[in-house]
Design goal:
Blueprint lengths: L2 H11 L4 H11 L5 H4 L3 H15 L5 H11 L5
Length: 76
């Protein structure tokens, strides 16, 4: 799994806030970048937490795959 997908997964699962979850899905689909998310003060804490967990490799790759399958928008 790539870094952005893992960050989106961790961001989505780290919060019950609907706004943060929507931004995580937008990150997964490439609608917003990590750099752009860092500008939102309401997401910074959750994003730092997600990056820390990713660096510590505290992530279940199977769960990330399921998250991507459920929320990734596929255009044909």
């Amino acid at each position: 799994m790539d870094k952005v997908t893992c960050l989106a997964f961790l961001l989505y699962n780290s919060s019950k806030n609907q706004y943060i979850r929507e931004k995580a899905i937008q990150l997964l689909n490439g609608e917003v970048s990590v750099r752009e998310l860092k500008k939102f003060h309401s997401i910074q804490t959750s994003l730092v937490l997600a990056e820390t967990l990713l660096k510590k490799n505290k992530i279940d790759k199977h769960q990330v795959q399921l998250f991507a399958e459920e929320f990734m928008a596929i255009e044909v």
